[in-house]
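haha ok so turns out i had the wrong file open the whole time. this is the CORRECT one, sorry everyone. sequence first:
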Amino acid sequence: MLLSKHEIKERIQKSGLVSNYVNLDEQLQPAGIDLTVSKVYKFKTSGKIDFDNKERKLSEVEELHPDSRGYFNLPKGIYKLQFAEEVRLPNDVAAINILRSSVMRSGCMMHHGFWDPGYHGKGETALLVENENGLQLKKGAKVSQLIFMKLSQETREGYSGIHHMENLK
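then structure:
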């Protein structure tokens, strides 16, 4: 079951489901919340992925900076975006983020991960700029919608991986 706008707002107010939003009334959607761009990174090295993460090495990235107007000028290529909003999923809710259609209509795609129950942090996504003319992306732009799904029952063990806010400190 997807959480409705009103359920999301109630959980934000009662338990901090989402924080660091710009304008809750403008970001809430009928069945999700829009996420905004905080940081943009360019990939610098290859990554290394294995089964049990013993040899895992994430790609190194370089942070890009917006121009004087607040825009990231992105030529065709792949980028890592960090969202401004901090998400704190309880053990009875999972989430997935989906591309806003205006980003797709500008010749871009996003590649998403699944947000496990218990996750706490600022999510990231990969933005693939396929438009030959690139993309001007303003810091704070709404680029993705986070959809929350209620589990049939609360999980006993929530997310505790390397991307958990407490593990990043």
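Helices lie at 5-15, 24-27, 101-104.
again sry for the mixup
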